[in-house]
Specification:
By secondary structure, the protein is an all-alpha fold. It has helices spanning 2-19, 29-57, 63-81, 109-124, 134-164, 169-196, 201-226, 235-250, and strands at residues 90-91, 102-103. The radius of gyration is 18 Å and the shape is globular.
Length: 254
């Protein structure tokens, strides 16, 4: 029952976040940058506080290699997604008209969906159903919260790209729904593999967690660099980053 609730939260958060573009102006980058800064700080904090220690305490030899694999894998995925996992967009400034609208990168819809769905699918794989280790359940809760918060700006940006490209709302929501199913799908496949084919569960969990941590580290650091203006933070963004870290500190490690 708990796993069904987790899947529902993962799914509905994406749908609501994607729908938010019809309630808020998408050409004003300020709110989006603050949301991104919060999610980036939160992801980075839970990675170092909860996820990285778990990867290295799992008894897996050379666990850092799998974190690097995840980091490089995210670089490869961005060849398809152009970095929308960290809200990548360009703020266009016109001196005469003072236009500060957000221009998202032009990407092929098929390539974008393949890249972003693989990203989401991989993030779901450590969320394995039926775990009996209490410590690992605590880690999964942290990972679930991080994934949900991470998906908020992704969904907003993804839907913005669909609408800016002239796509109909019906098709845009259909593609958003497919994206929303990918994290639960990754979790379901991983659960099936762990119960039927994988005998050394702890090693498997450490490997897949290491890969996801590498993805998180790449995305979170990219967010924190890209939300700054000329690599400088104003007080609002700094306060938002501190808030993200503070909330991550409140999450129990186990």
């Amino acid at each position: 029952m708990e796993q069904i609730l987790i899947y529902f939260l993962l799914f509905i958060t994406i749908i609501i976040s994607g729908s938010a573009i019809f309630l808020f102006k998408t050409d004003n980058p300020k709110v989006l940058k603050l949301i991104l800064a919060f999610s980036g700080a939160f992801l980075l904090a839970i990675s170092f506080l909860n996820l990285v220690p778990e990867v290295f305490s799992g008894g897996l030899n050379k666990a850092g290699i799998f974190i690097l694999i995840g980091f490089v894998l995210q670089l490869l995925l961005e060849l398809l997604t152009k970095g929308i996992e960290h809200g990548h967009g360009h703020v266009h400034e016109c001196c005469e008209e003072h236009d500060h609208s957000v221009h998202f990168p032009k990407v092929a819809p098929i390539g974008l969906m393949i890249g972003i769905c693989l990203h989401s699918f991989l993030e779901g794989m450590p969320l394995i159903q039926g775990m009996h280790n209490h410590d690992l359940e605590g880690i999964q809760h942290s990972l679930t919260i991080g994934t949900i918060i991470h998906n908020i700006p992704i969904s907003f940006v993804l839907m913005s790209i669909f609408i800016q490209s002239g796509m109909s709302r019906k098709r845009a929501f259909g593609l958003l729904g497919i994206f929303a199913l990918m994290t639960p799908a990754g979790s379901l496949l991983s659960s099936m593999l762990s119960h039927e084919f994988i005998h050394d569960f702890e090693s498997y969990f450490s490997i897949i967690m290491g890969i996801v941590v590498g993805i998180f580290l790449h995305v979170s650091t990219s967010i924190l660099f890209e939300t700054s203006e000329d690599h400088q933070y104003n007080i609002k963004k700094f306060a938002t980053v501190i808030l993200g870290i503070a909330i991550a500190l409140l999450i129990p490690m186990h």
